[in-house]
UniProtKB/TrEMBL annotation:
It comes from the Bacteria. PROSITE patterns: ABC_TM1. Keywords: Cell membrane, Membrane, Transmembrane, Transmembrane helix, Transport. Its main location: membrane. This is Glycine/betaine ABC transporter permease. Belongs to the binding-protein-dependent transport system permease family. In the N-terminal section; belongs to the binding-protein-dependent transport system permease family. Residues 87-266 form the ABC transmembrane type-1 domain. Pfam families: BPD_transp_1, OpuAC. It is found in: Cell membrane; Membrane. The keyword Cell membrane applies. It comes from Streptomyces hygroscopicus.
Length: 872
């Protein structure tokens, strides 16, 4: 029998409806969204416990004191597990969907009860609506209404309407026909018969239908969460996709509490609206009063209304006068409250980058909204314009199918991480499996299964369509579809039991650090070349949000930054992603200004406007650090002046107060004589670099010279010279007075006075000609990286103990510049930082020191906040 293309027909019909009735869907979307926003605003306005009190009063009115107490405790529990906002979102969704359903279901049920032809027609339609898997409704729902609340509400209405229609029809048909005939006999109009006879008597059955409508609507919250609606559905969906037991249990408990409350209240509402039930209730209350059974007493409607209104007024007042508790502080109000909708896939790098940008945008005055989606829904929503951007587009391979389909409706804002790779991995204890070719013959070892991730992921499609056929794995292996979290959970279980397992993975991923895994080589290149992670936006986003688009285009994270950010978020736990981001930003000061730069965003110090006088020597580390501090101080609002000195002049000028501070005191050995002479007028601020040494160095091509003792007898090799630096430095005086005599070199060698640049120039000339040369050097120094030179050992310790590089100031410096003094007390640089800073200054060239420092600072974001923190 030929295959009927039912799916294609349905698809064509959906496309036709979308293209020709878009105005109708836009109208429906506006109405539903407006209803939801209004109800959600009302439910979210009061303080949680006060609103819980309102709901408890309603429970007291409908059910009694004990149900009221239990209701209050249940809602207090929801608040305590920090799911109050999500619960109110869900309640708003259920109420809106329930009202819409009842508005359509009751009239349809009445019509069906009065017309058997109508009943016969709608019965199979209702069967179809109730038995079709509700997830299927999401596909056309996204096309018609986009992402968010509306498709969730529409799917909920369709799914929950059948019991409302059926129970209404059943209730009216069950009314005694003799009563209806009696009303007709007295000449009652059919409409009055319906309103005065049939509906009142059918009301208990109709209310049972309303109860079922509400309960079915609540059961659909997960559906709403999958398409981007707020609420407990989103919480449960995230828990399912990440296999988070704690998060799922808490979300489930909140759903259960809401379900029990709505079930009990809607079933009890019949007692307040049905005449027969009201009489039964009155008899029950009379018995309760006569027996002093307070727990069964219920307040009158007027008393309950007074209580509800009073609590509502108090709650509303507290909401009006309460402040915003948002922890994010606006550091530069660029956004002016503009909203940005960010979607993300529940993958580690997607969660990390999304919540990072949520925090950054909030600090820049925007109102970002983030929502988790399935991969397909995310790309579809962006193409439809419902989502502004996402930061987890793996291109050109993994998400190639989505990009190819929607690229005309999207913008690629550039890559922020790469390269990546897709792979299949197995534990290292599985022997004999190193490539994907090896996997084909090991089907029984892995029980014929490769554990995959989300079925809509690009890697899964690539694996199914290309990789498995290329290696013949589609014959003996099944690709298990699930979620990233489920795959990782299975990996963890199998690894703990030392069982063979093959999983789909990608690089970078923290699993390679946690477990010993073998990344199977893709010898045929079926996975394609490595991806890069891109930021994708809807078409037109750059024009509407040029500032955000520019930030996104410049956005970059290194592997170390990304993995440390993911780690902070994992440590913070589910639901506290932004707290993890804030913890990471504290450990990476200046990252906000780097990723979202705003002119003039640098904070000013408490002593902004102060003008400290800084002296420096023409030594590499001193030039580099002096210009670095000049830049930092200027960013903090200071007006520093810098001036070069000889060593002796520096100490003399600093002791007299002509120089406030310098950063290159080599103590306790190198400049000991100056410190001993002037220390009464100076203050030792502290070391910023330790483990230094004073050296004599020779090129490595000079053989047989490994220590200072080896220099003896080789004066002719070096033409009797040791190339020195500034004659006033402590190292030069120590070399002439102690080191050379200690090794018997004072008669054989002469130390040439000069300068550090002259010494380095001579070293470069001799090195280029392969000539022997001995030079005065020190550690740290970039020359050891640039040239292959030997640091001569000092077995007699003639140069003395190792020095520290310390900051010194005039004795008035701490009181004159307390903030700057505090910064210097905590300042420290590593060998790598100092060497790279010196190199950047050297490459910039003489006269361009500030450019070299700026280039280095650009490569070290956050250095200003690290060196000179200002409390916000």
């Amino acid at each position: 029998m030929p295959r009927l293309q039912v799916g294609d027909w349905i698809n064509s019909g959906v496309n036709w409806l979308r293209d020709n009735l878009s105005w109708l869907f836009d109208f429906i979307s506006s109405v539903v969204q407006g209803m939801y926003d209004a109800v959600n605003t009302v439910l979210g306005a009061p303080e949680p416990l006060l609103f819980a009190g309102i709901l408890a009063v309603l429970a007291w009115w409908l059910r009694g004191l004990m149900p009221a107490v239990l209701a209050f405790l249940g809602f207090a529990l929801i608040d305590s597990i920090e799911l109050w906002g999500e619960a109110m979102n869900t309640l708003a969704l259920v109420l809106v969907a329930g009202v819409i359903t009842i508005v359509f279901a009751v009239p349809l049920g009445i019509w069906a009860s009065r017309n058997r032809a109508v009943s016969a027609v709608i019965r199979p339609v209702l069967d179809f609506m109730q038995t079709m898997p509700a997830f299927v409704y999401l596909i056309p729902g996204i096309f018609f209404f986009g992402l968010g609340v509306v498709p969730g509400v529409v799917a909920t209405v369709i799914f929950s309407m059948p019991p409302g229609v059926r129970m209404t029809e059943l209730g009216i048909r069950q009314v005694d026909t003799e009563l209806v005939e009696a009303a007709d006999a007295f000449g009652t109009h059919p409409r009055r018969t319906l309103l005065r006879v049939q509906l009142p008597l059918a009301l208990p059955t109709i209310m049972a239908g309303v109860n079922q409508v509400i309960m079915l609507a609540l059961s659909m919250v997960v559906i709403a969460g999958m398409v981007g609606a707020e609420g407990l559905g989103s919480t449960v969906f995230q828990a399912i996709s990440s296999v988070d037991v704690a998060m799922g249990f808490e979300g489930g408990i909140a759903v259960v509490i809401l379900a029990m409350y709505l079930d009990r209240m809607t079933s009890a509402l019949n007692q307040r609206v049905s005449p027969l039930a009201r009489r039964a209730l009155a008899r029950e209350q009379a018995k309760a009063l006569s027996g002093f059974k307070v727990l069964r007493w219920r307040p009158a409607t007027s008393v309950a209304m007074v209580g509800v209104v009073a609590l509502a007024l108090v709650a509303g007042g507290m909401h009006v006068f309460s402040g915003d508790e948002d922890d994010s502080k606006v550091s530069a109000d660029v956004g002016k409250g503009q909203s940005v909708n960010i979607g993300y896939i529940n993958w580690d790098e997607g969660v990390a980058s999304t919540f990072l940008w949520k925090e950054l945008l909030e600090q820049r005055g925007f109102k970002p909204k983030v929502q988790s989606y399935d991969v397909g829904a995310l790309w579809t929503g962006m193409a439809a314009g419902n989502i502004d951007l996402q930061t987890d587009g793996w291109l050109p391979a993994t998400h190639a199918a989505y990009w190819s389909k929607y690229k005309d409706k999207l913008e690629n804002l550039g890559s922020w991480y790469g390269p990546t790779s897709l792979e299949v991995a197995v534990p290292s204890y599985v022997k004999g499996v190193k490539t994907l070719d090896d996997l084909e013959k090991k089907s029984s070892t892995f029980k014929g299964k490769i554990i995959g991730i989300e079925p809509g992921a690009g890697e899964m499609k690539l694996m199914q369509d290309k990789v498995m056929p290329a290696y013949g794995l589609n014959k003996n292996f099944t690709l298990v579809k699930g979620s990233t979290a489920a795959m990782l959970s299975q990996l963890d279980r199998s690894y703990a039991k030392q069982e063979p397992i093959a999983v789909t993975l990608w690089s970078p991923h923290w699993a390679y650090n946690k477990y010993h895994l073998t990344k199977l080589k893709d010898t045929k290149g079926a996975f394609g070349k490595g991806d890069h992670v891109d930021t994708i936006a809807r078409k037109g986003f750059s024009q509407k949000n040029p500032q955000v688009a520019q930030w996104m285009k410049n956005f970059k994270l290194s592997e170390k930054q990304l993995t440390s950010l993911e780690s902070e978020i994992q440590d913070a736990g589910k639901g506290k992603e932004q707290q993890g981001v804030r913890a990471w930003l504290k450990k990476n000061p200046g990252m906000v200004n780097k990723l979202a730069p705003v002119p003039g965003a640098d904070q000013k110090g408490k002593d902004a406007g102060a003008a400290p006088k800084i002296g420096y020597f023409p030594w590499d580390e001193d030039v580099a650090t002096t210009y670095l501090w000049k830049n930092v101080l200027e960013r903090r609002g200071y007006k520093p002046s810098i001036k070069q000195y000889d060593v002796g002049s520096m100490f003399t000028g600093m002791s007299s107060g002509q120089v406030d501070v310098e950063f290159d005191a080599w103590l306790p050995v190198g400049q000991k004589q100056y410190w001993d002479k002037y220390k009464e007028n100076l203050v030792d601020i502290g070391p910023w670099y330790d483990k230094t040494s004073l050296d004599i160095a020779v090129p490595s091509y000079v053989k047989g010279v490994k220590s200072l003792a080896d220099l003896k007898g080789k004066g002719s090799t070096f033409k009797g010279r040791i190339i020195g630096i500034e004659p006033g430095t402590g190292q030069m005086k120590m070399l002439k007075n102690k080191v050379l005599p200690a090794y018997g070199l004072d008669k054989e060698y002469k130390v040439s006075d000069g300068s550090s640049p002259a010494m380095l120039a001579q070293l470069e000339r001799s090195y280029a000609k392969h000539e022997p040369v001995a030079v005065v050097l020190w550690t740290p120094h970039w020359a050891y990286s640039k040239y292959q030179i030997t640091r001569l050992a000092d077995p007699k310790k003639a140069f003395g103990a190792n020095n520290e590089i310390r900051s010194l100031g005039h004795k008035s410096f701490p009181k004159k510049y307390p903030e700057f003094y505090g910064w210097l007390k905590k300042w420290h640089m590593t060998n790598q930082e100092l060497a790279s800073l010196e190199q950047a200054v050297q490459e910039a060239g003489k006269g361009n020191e500030e450019k070299g420092v700026q280039k280095w600072m650009d490569a070290h974001p956050g250095i200003v906040d690290k060196m000179a923190p200002v409390a916000s």
